[in-house]
Amino acid sequence: MRIAVGAVGDGGVLRPVAEDGTPTGPAEPVTDLVSAIARREAAWSRPGGAPGDARGDAAARAGGTRGDAAARTGGVRWVWSSTADLYPRLLSAGVRVARCHDLELTETLLLGHAGRLGEPRSVAAALARLHGRPVPDDPVVAHDLPTLFDEGPSDDIEAVVAVHAEQQRRIAETGLRMLAAAESAGALVAAEMGHDGLPWRPDVHDALLTELMGPRPAPGLRPRGLQQLADRIGEALGRRINPDSPSQIVKAFAQEGVRIPSTRSHVLRQVEHPAARLLLEYKELARLYVAHGWSWLDTWVRDGRFRPEYVVGGVVSGRWATNGGGALQIPKVLRRAVVADPGWSLVVADAAQLEPRVLAALADDEAFAAAAGESDLYSALAGVFGGARDKAKIALLSAMYGGTSGEAPQLLAVMRRRFPAAYDYVEAAARAGESGRVVRSRLGRTCPPPSQEWRDLAVQDGGGSAVRSRGRFTRNFVVQASAADWALVLLAALRRRLTALGSGDVAPRLVFFQHDEVIVHAPRELTEAVTAAIRESATEARRLVFGDTPVRFPMEAVAVECYADAK
Predict the structure, then answer these.
(1) What's the CA gap between 53 and 59, in Å, rounded?
(2) Number of neighbours of residue 253 by Cβ within 10 angstroms
(3) What are phi and psi of 550, to 5 degrees?
(4) How far apart, in whole angstroms, are the C-alpha atoms of residue 200 and residue 302?
(5) pTM
(6) How do residues 279-288 score in pLDDT, each as one tens digit?
């Protein structure tokens, strides 16, 4: 069954609704929203509700008979405005829910499908669109900056019910049911990972920084190692400069008779001057110091856990982003600080060659799909490209990203002859983009339509750089967004299986996700079961997203005590 949630401060209103959004019972005010949700979740998580529990019986009556499908297949699906706003309150009270319908995330998907991505997505905005009224802007939310007068989210129950019913109608019309469910499940995973946190050893992190650049500096000063590098750069250039200033560096090199267009790393690597190597070393250390130095450690690691705020669908392709913390870009050198608790392990798994496999499944190219049934796709394709695995990789990446340099044209010609369906799939996506049309992922996530500025440029350019750039974008979108579809379904399936393996303080938890990689923190005795759960979830995601395909999506999993040992 579904229960709509209207949150008002610590309390709120609950109302049961049918799958199509039609109310099936009266609205019920509650003074303690968290406790009310906890009771109903517990009652409906057991087949048939909770015998003898008046609230459980009431919920069962509101949703139908106690033996109905909802009770048998996972209980309540909570309908609320924003998981990111409400669910952390539940998690802080020790309450976890199995399923939800996130109205804001779903509105984003539906707006995107209609070519209106970027319009306000709040319940208030969706209700205004429904009734033809002026649409308000989305409120600016800072989840990490509570104020003295912060009373939590506030949503009118009738607005929630009306918006949900309209979304269910549009979902049925657009075929976005699986994507909307997966996106909402992803929001639960994201909030839980932020709550549980990735195990992180501050002492190891500090030791690594100290080894690389010296002890923690006083405020306003560079670490000793960075300052020494800065001094050596100045000596090599014959003058004191600020290595953080591109203009000073370009000028100093010019005075040495070396002309450089910028201080980007790929430019400096081509420069034969002693200062260039030192600058590259300085840039690498400075980047680590600024992005993941001691200030980062103070800000983001608490009680031995790194707790970022994940943004579900933060990238238009469906990939996640983060609000600060750089969770999706943990430097390899700092993976030594990611250490499991005593008696626990980190089960690290990633999907090998995910995007090429996704292309094989999307295109339904028999020869390509057969190769994607092997554990190493590039090796399986090497024979087609003269026995060279690296050439197979270049060909596939060029096809997906629109590469045209070096050997790419010749290798793409081979791909066109041997795997015409796969080649034509991405070519069709590119042509659609170049003509100003939108393309969609396997589950229906839609790319943004071109802006008016692009359309004006396309007319002026006559098929020039702006047109080609959009073609490259849509060519990759269909693959990357479909890979994000698969990853979302994987997360939902894995979360369900991990819940079945344990609960409370000994439950295995998803603690990290990045595009095609997951980390589960699990009691050591459960690592084999977790590894099996990951592989089963990958298989389930393949079946649900791509149907009956010979393409394999192998998840290589390893149990380690330290993240660095997994690679």
Answers:
(1) 10
(2) 21
(3) -75, -10
(4) 9
(5) 0.90
(6) 999 999 999 9
